Amino acid sequence: MLSEKTVAAISTPSGEGGIGVIRISGKDAIIIAEKVFKSASGSPLTTLSGYSAVFGYVYDKEELIDEAVATVFLEPKSYTGENVCEISCHGGRYVTSAVLRAVLSAGAEMAAPGEFTKRAFLNGKLDLIKAEGVMGLISAKSKEELRAQLSLKRGKVSEEIEKIEAALLELSADFAAYSDYPDEDLPELSQDNFSRLISLAEDGLYKLLISFDSGKILKEGVSVAIVGKPNVGKSTLMNMLSRENRSIVTNIAGTTRDVIENEVNFAGLNLILADTAGIRQTSDAVEGVGVELARERLNSAQLVLAVFDCSEELDNNDKEILSLLQKDNTIIVLNKTDKERRLTEDLFGGFNTVFISAKNSEGEEELKTAIRQITTADSIDPAAALLLSERQHDLVSKAYNAVKEAKNMLLGGFTIDAVEVCVEEALTVLYTLSGKRVTNEVADEVFRRFCVGK
Amino acid sequence: MNYFAGNFDVAVIGAGHAGIEAALAAARLNQKTVMFCINLDSVGNMPCNPSIGGTAKGHLVREIDALGGEMGVAADKTTLQSRMLNLGKGPAVHSLRAQIDRKAYTALMKHTVELQENLILKQAEVTELLNCEDGWHCITKLGAEFVCKTVILATGTFLGGKIFVGEVNYSSGPDGMFSAEGLTDSLIKLGIPLRRFKTGTPARVLKSSINFDVLEVQEGDERIIPFSYKTEKSPQNTVVCHISYTNDDTKQVILDNIHRSPLYSGVIEGVGPRYCPSIEDKIMRFADKKRHQLFIEPCGADTEEMYLQGMSSSLPEEVQIQIYHSIKGLENVQIMRNAYAIEYDCIDPVCLSASLEFKEHSGLFGAGQFNGSSGYEEAAAQGLVAGINAARKNLGLEPLVLSRSSSYIGTLIDDLVTKGCADPYRMMTSRSEYRLLLRQDNADERLMPIGFEIGLIDEDTYNKFQNRKTDKENEIERVRKLTLSPNEALNKKLEELGTTPLSTGIKMAELIKRPEVSYFDLAEFDASRPELPFETAMKVETEIKYEGYIARQKSQVEDMLKLENRRLPLDVDYTEVEGLRLEAREKLNRVRPENIGQASRISGVSPSDISVLSIWAQKRRMEKNS
What we know:
The complex is a heterodimer of chains A (454) and B (626). Helix content of chain A is 47%, strand content 19%. Chain A is an alpha/beta fold and 454 residues long. Chain B is globular.
């Protein structure tokens, strides 16, 4: 898996900061950046000349992640000497990783340690003395990575990956034996066995991806948007959540104008709460901006707490909010049980609903349970998830996509020589994680399992 | 007393499948060439299976042909039966395999060699090889001293050959030929470390003693595709093969006598090929397998000898008789030649560069089993490359190095010189990461331009190739542009094929991309379709249907080529490169890769080592320039 692909990484130090920079470098850097970044002016990044910067928005497919400034450098006039696009977004781990993930899924690969500097040197942008430093950096970083790999080895992740590797290897060896030894008296290839192996790999990889998200949840917390029309008790809910444990880590006001952020510990999780402006139709320009931001938060948050006043019938405002919600990341919080109830959960068919009285701090336990369920916090195995890096996530998701494609091809009746392209791609990616080589492995597996040869 | 026997540009030691291709290529490139052979009746001999091709090996033969080699031409002229293997498993793994008339092949090859201008065939055993100021001296057992600019070692199983049959063993080459005894010491004196590999062959039995009535028949293909692009008249099937199986009795005979096998008693030190196990090896290693298949194949049109594919053995002759007699159809079989194992000297190929020249010995090349490979086709492929490169060295030209993405030949050589081999190396389709690109059908497109440029492909052959290619490209273009409108007949056909009927017009190419639909299925709805040869039509079908996957592999190739283009110096001590891990330093010192891409394929060299290496190499280049 060594290649001269376009690579990307977060180039600012991790942790909180005003601005985070995601650097993309390589032949397709600008094209990839254009896939995730839409300039406010509407002119594509690919039309810009070098050294120019534009304001715009970062999307992961349809979903808006952040507003940002993109700076374009054209080869050879850039740090690395290649085409480079730097996306400067809001700082902090969430936004920066979300932007990076979007860039990776748009076709970039995660940069290896020291990669940008290495490329800069190879393209003649750095002098000899610096080269020594880069080599030191790479070998030091690779030792770190090795240590991380070693500790991973003891953990569940590598056990899981090995299981997946074994399934794919078996599949690949079946294909190889079948194609390389057509005249042998081998058992017929069974479709059932293929389906079993490929599902095993697919499920395994999917679980790893999920655990990555879960791991992030444990490490970095869950972004929560509290939404609802004005005066349903959003702020009271925020206070209830905050009061439950006084470990308020940050209280950043104004970073995103009138969204208030609080990081609290609730239900055993770090919740990064964003209390948003009430969503309603408004003619007030300033309030309109707030409402727009609330909608964005609603779209980008991992968890949405949608607050309704259960002592009043649903009005058009409520109904509009309801239409914006997704079942898999929303908890309907029916507040004001201290008053007469006029709403039942039937009105929210399919949604998780919890009745509370934020004012009296009633319904806290039910809310905790609901939050842990919906964030899958209960099923997180911290040992399994903690060491997965963004780079590993990139590789695992590549393997997952390749396996999915292989499965579809098998089901679609494609010949195995083409299916194998995808299976081997997945294997190559996984072996990149563990440092093995595919072709040798497959040949060895064939000889181990089959009696072939005349 | 030695005598001076002449000056030559190229000497080839050994006239098996590697030696022949090497000598023919060198002579055709205007090199004054001499080829030595212990016995001139064994030129191009097939001491094992009477067949050429097979999975991945068939690819090799077509590639040899596209580069201007001889094997495919000779095979087509002596084919007894031909089959395209793996039909239905996808074009990447289609492979040609042909039963060959063994004696006819040998005679034809010998005659081709004899008729070749610039080439002298000499029955002699080279017993000494000296590196002198005026060139390499090849000295024969009888004292003839040939002075040569370059030498190609293609000694096969002859070098230090030793045959094992049960408790009996003796020095010998294959098929009752003498072994080559003196050269080993001479090579060791040059500082070339040798090791022992072994291989084996089954018995040849008398046709009239086989009961064919109880055996399964295996027929050849109705439509035969020849190996060679130059062959205009397709070979015909004139024989059939038969299939039988071992049983519990066979297993019992082997278990009762396994202690008499030189492999199990430890007398054989050589490493045998994993993919070509003896019958006793199969029984022992796969104890729960109920039966093992064997093929009964004719050795030629004018002989009654039959070859028992899959039944090689080094057990004593009387045990062999019991084993064969236990098998259905062979109850009364008469053994004409017994099965045996043969052990021989070979090198660890990491001491060769990708041109197949020894890194430490300028002008000395290795090819075939001597390099640790196995199989006629693997040998011929290396022989061709070694012959071309010996000639090019003499002519002061850059060596021909085929990339992994260009061919199975390139993959084979890269595997050998980069990874080495722990047991005799056989080509398999699973060894290539670019299978969809390296199809047997497009060997001409991949390699014929190279063969033409080198000078081994003549103008006429090259023009015909270019016409084929143009026809194919025009047809693909036409099929891409042609829109098919929905109509009753077409939709009926699509439903029959098990795919969704059309509601709107669709480009024909898009329809062919559906797995259920082929280019051929749509002929009746395509009035303007030109008459194309079957092979060209197949290429059209393949290139359209697999377009997406082919493009994907092509982009992987581009990435790899960038790494291949970053050259590494050969005169370097990697233990002194800071930042490399210890294991990587050792491995790099052993293989001494020619470029970063090759370095990345050495097991034990990690991606971060490659990063360090590329920076180090660039730094060194800058220091040299300043």
